[in-house]
């Protein structure tokens, strides 16, 4: 027996020795430089193979070293995999004191090194989904399971699970789910999801109030919606009706009547709607009578509406658009249209037209009320047919109203609104008598014009803008030549003063205030031969200094100009080098000092005006 055994051992030793000798000779390191560089290979399927292997071990209960317990369910798992997937489990399984009890209960029978760990407050259904995800990378989510999955995923700090739940919930937002999703977002502090659900609800509110979901809103939800300017409704009456329906669903909600009614914008309802639909509600007369009186007073004093200091008089919209007003084309046809352009400047809609066409007029916007002043209704000798009329457009009701005429007929003049004083100021211009030096002020609350301090010289075709409640007026035509003057009017002291002059005299130009600077754009100069002014000048009122910026690419005189989204828009006008009215829309970015051509008007217009208005959603759909 021993001889045979020795013989076998000898053979085994010989075999091993022979193998080592053989492999040693074969696997000697290559000392000379190889012409083939080292190559790294990556298996795209290895991760799946690894997970599949772990999952197979789990199903066969092989090498599982801990059991998770949730409710009546038990889940045998592998510590290493859990620690790799979850910071929560990694911290649990790598603690220095692994005999410390789990959780805050020092008397707990479970320690970090226990073979079984009970996870209290965790749903077994949620834990089942999370364990499946850690072993397969797959996560089925439904509206019925998402809250349990979120709760466990957040507890175990598994970010992919939270991301998948977020993606699912955002995709699931619709009329019948948005309230539930808002409540889920509130519970789990998911601000992005909450914002997305509210955005949907605000945009689809007319459809939402027709569903049976309105009653599920909490007071906080209702309050948020009623506060928002983005609530897209056809009328404020719809908002009132929805709020009334919500209150009447549950008697306990009557405790919120006053707070919610304060958020309804009753002044935006026509008087007939207030009388027929609002006054008849009992609690409006007993608990909210002052709100009805406010709305009634608003309608009784139409001229003062722009200066009523109330959040309830503001349009429910944040949609601010460019509005092109009037102007004359290359055939001398004068427009009476108000064109509202979309954000892309590719299309426009029409607001109610003015009674007659107008050009060389002025416009001013005071608290989102549009005033159109003076100008000429026909294309004739400059100033000969100028008018003194003033009309006001109210986007709240999409209506026009006649207000007091100016004291003098004016064309080629400038008007600015100074909100701090609730006043409009009309400066200079020209009429059948000639150029004007007079300045008049419109008192909104009195619906009356009165003269204030005149300019030193008569001027027309100038422009102006407001900076820190002072009116700055530049250029224009005065004393037989184009002016380089920069004038500053202080309404508090009713005085004019001269500031440093323009570097280039000009008229028919545009002037826009952007933050602490005043930009002068376009226009023309010259006497016998008109020349486009391309230089862009910027003025600092604080330092009384001028700086030259990037020139405009094409001459634009008698153009419309205004500020939107921190860019200066210059629209249409007359190009002297081309000898025609143009339809070009250009923008200037003060931050980048760059000009860009961004669109076109339907036809060339000069003597037009441009402004921005915030319009109700139903007017710009």
Brief rundown of the structure:
By secondary structure, the protein is of the alpha+beta class.
Low-confidence stretches: 1-19, 104-108
Q: Please give the radius of gyration in angstroms.
A: 38 Å
Beta-strand residue fraction: 15-25%
Number of domains: 3
How would you sum up the major sheet?
4 strands, antiparallel
Order of strands across the widest beta sheet? 6-5-4-35
CATH architecture of the largest domain: 6 Propeller
Keywords: Kelch repeat, Repeat
InterPro entries: BACK, BTB-kelch_protein, BTB/POZ_dom, Kelch-typ_b-propeller, Kelch_1, SKP1/BTB/POZ_sf
Pfam families: BACK, BTB, Kelch_1, Kelch_KLHDC2_KLHL20_DRC7
Protein name: BTB domain-containing protein
Which SSEs are present, and which pair or pack?
Elements: H1 2-26, H2 46-59, E1 66-70, E2 73-77, H3 79-85, H4 87-93, E3 116-118, H5 124-136, H6 146-155, H7 159-171, H8 178-187, H9 191-203, H10 205-208, H11 219-227, H12 236-249, H13 257-261, H14 271-278, H15 282-287, H16 289-300, E4 320-325, E5 338-341, E6 348-351, E7 362-366, E8 369-373, E9 390-394, E10 399-403, E11 414-418, E12 423-427, E13 430-431, E14 434-435, E15 439-443, E16 448-452, E17 463-467, E18 470-474, E19 477-478, E20 481-482, E21 486-490, E22 495-499, E23 510-514, E24 517-521, E25 524-525, E26 531-532, E27 536-540, E28 545-549, E29 560-564, E30 567-571, E31 574-575, E32 580-581, E33 584-589, E34 594-600, E35 609-614
Parallel strand pairs: 1-3
Antiparallel strand pairs: 1-2, 4-5, 4-35, 5-6, 7-8, 8-9, 9-10, 11-12, 12-15, 13-14, 15-16, 17-18, 18-21, 19-20, 21-22, 23-24, 24-27, 25-26, 27-28, 29-30, 30-33, 31-32, 33-34
Helix pairs in contact: 3-4, 5-6, 6-7, 8-9
